[in-house]
Amino acid sequence: MPGRGSTAASTAMLLWEIDRPLSHLAAAYGFEQASRCYNASRRALDGLVDLVRRLEVRCQLRSRGSLYLAAEYDASDLRSEAEIRKRAGLPTTFLDYSTLLRDYSFSREGALYSEGAADADPVLLTYGLLKAVLGRGARLYQANAVAFDSARSGVHVMTEGGVEISAQYLVLATGYVMPDIVRPTIQKGASSWAVATIPQPAALWKDGTLLWEASKSYHYARTTVDGRVIFGGEDESLVDPELRDSLTASKTEKLKQALHQLWPASSLELDHAWSGTFDTTADGLPLIGRVPSFQNIFAAYGYGGNGVTFSYLAAYLIEVLVSGQRSPLLDDFALDRQAP
Ligand SMILES: Cc1cc2nc3c(=O)[nH]c(=O)nc-3n(C[C@H](O)[C@H](O)[C@H](O)COP(=O)(O)OP(=O)(O)OC[C@H]3O[C@@H](n4cnc5c(N)ncnc54)[C@H](O)[C@@H]3O)c2cc1C
């Protein structure tokens, strides 16, 4: 069902900053590769925003700045991160305690402020893009794909209802549910919880800046067009939907406490609390490229907290592959890469 899966649960903070700090990625892969990945993510987000505006997709898209708030990584870590991002040509500035308090009223040791983020309604975004491709001749089949057969000349997909679809190429983008033919070792599923408050436009922080914590497991927050706070986090490495849903009440309480600590001015009256599962990787980079041993089958998975940004990057890179070109990013994001 289009627009369901993780996308319906997404808080849709559109960040080019990757789940792993640039300094950590550079320690694992070297500065050149890490900087290439960050810059590709930044270009992808610019490309997505541009596409949405060109196609006039009505999805409440708003350009925003983002604040990466000191938490597990402290002010001195953030200063180093700001330095390396500057070297990579990225638009990030370090804010010390007093500047952060004066300009944004957040009481943290420091933060990184980055330009070029955005937020949007993820379901309206998906429907808008789908409408655009359907208008250009794409066909939509609602069916569960159960088997795949790849030959030199093309691909056949067998669906649960017995319909067979033939095409020249196949792109698998089935979220955290991967078919058996895709076997990455660097990936695992995770669940995240989120809440939305009642509308409270007078109680929001400056500019509705996107917020996330500098930590391996982090809280994240944004505002909405109608003045709500969306606040999420408390991630766990579990994917079972029943277990996940059974934790929602306790996770909601933890999220309310963390929101109160971060932004005491916020009302804690909630309109909605939910959870969802998504796919993460050990290095925070996506899995994009050819499925090993399958000539005409490509895949786009492992998006972590950058799902929306990386989906655009996946579309771009798979077009690169289909048109027979090369990009070093395809090695960076290879499905069969090992954990660093
Ligand atoms: C609570 C939460 C908050 C998040 N916040 C953010 C955020 O702020 N910013 C961000 O960028 N990302 C965020 N993410 C991650 C982001 O939502 C996901 O990475 C992204 O939505 C994945 O999109 P997708 O289309 O790849 O997968 P999905 O949205 O999961 O879609 C996959 C689709 O494939 C279908 N499918 C599966 N198997 C088959 C099959 N065999 N045959 C046919 N169809 C199949 C599913 O039914 C589904 O419709 C968040 C995720 C969660 C859970």
Labels describing this entry:
single chain, 3-stranded antiparallel sheet, 33% helix, globular
Can you put this structure into words, describing what you see?
- The chain has 10 helices and 15 strands.
- The strands form 3 sheets. Strands 1, 2, 3, 4, 9, 10, 11, 12 and 13 form a 9-stranded mixed beta sheet that branches. A 3-stranded antiparallel beta sheet has the order 5-6-7, with no helix packed on it. A 3-stranded mixed beta sheet has the order 8-15-14, covered by helices on one side.
- It is 33% helix and 28% strand.
- The longest helix has 24 residues, at 31-54.
- The model has no long low-confidence stretch (mean pLDDT 95).
- It has helices at 5-9, 22-29, 31-54, 75-87, 97-104, 122-135, 241-246, 248-262, 307-322, 329-332, and strands at residues 13-14, 62-70, 92-96, 110-119, 145-151, 154-159, 164-167, 170-172, 187-197, 210-214, 220-223, 229-236, 270-281, 287-290, 297-301.
- It starts with a helix and ends in an 8-residue tail after the last helix.
- With 340 residues, the protein is α+β, with helices and mostly antiparallel strands.
- Bound molecules: flavin-adenine dinucleotide.
- Residues 1, 4-7, 9-13, 144-145, 173-175, 177, 192, 194, 232, 276-278, 303, 305-309, 311 line the site of flavin-adenine dinucleotide.
